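Hey,
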Amino acid sequence: MNSAAATPVSLAATDTAARHPAATRAWTRSAIGTVQAESNRSADTHLYKVELPEKWGLDLYVKDESCHRTGSLKHRLARSLFLFALVNGWINEGTTVVEASSGSTAVSEAYFAHLLGLDFVAVMTRSTSPEKIALIEQFGGRCHFVDKADEVYSAAADIAAQCDGHYMDQFTYAERATDWRGNNNIAESIFSQLGHERFPEPSWVVVGAGTGGTSATIGRYIRYHGHDTQLLVVDPEGSAFYPAWKNHDPETVTGTSSRIEGIGRPRVEPSFVPGVIDAMSVIPDAASVAAMMHFSELTGMHAGPSTGTNLWGVWQLVAQMVARGEKGSIVTLMCDGGERYAGSYNNPDWLSERGLDPAPHLAAINNFFAGGPWQG
């Protein structure tokens, strides 16, 4: 054995630089522990059964993501994005975190940044609800406003570069940050909670697409575990996701800014995975508002407009299944609470100014529940 080879080599005596000094690794280890501890303290979100007419032979379940600490489905995404950035070495002690967000993701990321003692900047359109802006600021975040939805990406990247921070980029990393095979993701939670129901494997799961991360996680999980469940993704008017899925063209399709906060995009985001989606449907914006209102009347639960988009898609499916005489269950998500939209979607004057009249769509839902044909 060569004695020279057996001599320990000191890194200090070589040209090798220590990219991750001990103090940095110690902070990262502590930060990951903080985020994981927050997760352990949080009980899983509730899966509520919504009472439907017995003659339909169908069960509807709504997973209430509004009961997370930051009040929305995006709490899960923010947790995953922070862990992903920490283990990749993108966030360290003192890093300013920047995100492009219409509101709920920014609220949740502001919360996790606050937990870790980091500065946070949210880039969003000026049309974002005042309630969401107040929540971001409540958790110590700062808001930077742009005029158009397609300006948020470059503005966020520029701010991160100027302060030597990290642009979280939910639209790129949402589908990568969550382990779709399990690890307490939302799909695993849904199927576990349905275990003792009369239809433990749902016929359909209905979700919207904002980043595309939730639909990617659920769709992959369904396939990985061999379930027969189908995935319906609902999209607001003008969003780029539906035409990209329909025409098999995610590269060139563009859309318009969505009037339904949290879902729909003017471009096809990198986290959108069309191949895991079984069906898509475009939902009129006024119908989303109507379904949100009907849900409050039906259950006493006050949800936001993206939940209404989900529910209009649910009623479309229910009508089709009833017409075919099918039995089974459907699961959808309550993405956030209606209190975030007191001055907007719950304000008749605000709706009127934007040409959103929910009355005809609300009448269609009520007629369907009364035994009439579906006219949505």
